[in-house]
Amino acid sequence: NDGNGNFSVTIYRRNHNRDGEYITHIYVYAGSETEGLNTKVYYELSSPTEFDTYAKEVMHNIIYAVETGGQIYRNARYNDFTQAYTNSSRETAITIGAGAWFATEAKNLLNQIRQEDPATFAALDTAGIGYDLDHADWSTYGGDGNGNPTILKGSAKAVCIQNIISSQAGIAVQDRLVDEQMERYVNEAEALGVTDLKARMFCANIRHLGGYGAMEWVIEVCIEDGKALTMENLWTSMRDHTPNKGGNGVGADKYKTRHEKVMGWLNQYIG
Hints:
Layout: E1 20-30, E2 33-43, H1 53-67, E3 81-82, E4 95-96, E5 101-102, H2 104-116, H3 118-124, H4 129-135, H5 156-165, H6 168-191, H7 197-210, H8 212-224, H9 231-241, H10 256-269
Helix pairs in contact: 1-6, 1-10, 2-3, 2-6, 6-7, 7-8, 7-10, 8-9
């Protein structure tokens, strides 16, 4: 109720993926009496051009989906724990959380949870994780340097970490970190000359998967191909120039479904 007989309602674009006419059924309740009104509202759903709150929410949902959510939009596994060397020899440390924070990023996540809610962290820390944060080398935390994990899933330390990161404070910190991370990555892509929003968000996906160097390389090969820096062109250039399709590079076959899912969601939710 806005006063003076005027009423308003917020209609969220994320709930509607088509332009056109939407019929809204409005019911006014006055005591035991109900009066039904029918009204038609026509509005156009414009696509965002900036990485605003809505676009940030979309990117948030995408990253969680492709990292731990089983490639289902909006899915997330906040208590995820992945042993060192699970996917490649380069994974020298553990990876944790819905956004797949690896090595020193995992350390940062746990440190921020400790700072956000020290009492809960202390209560849940039954395996000396706080001590490890202050004394261990997190670039190889959970690995022996020779391809063998030293912290196994189901072990006391692994379960302890899972309890901490899936606590209320743990979930809040993960959500904040992924939003900050995606905003930084989107801005990095823009600084490299990518202006289209979907293309910048696609680059953030590449950056999260393979690091800054991988994102920079994809942009460079797309420019060398003489193509505009669109999402589709970045994808085809990355796919065509990846030297070892069976390897672990961002354009490898193992990530084909991931990139296709990301592009599909960006077309659906960004337009």
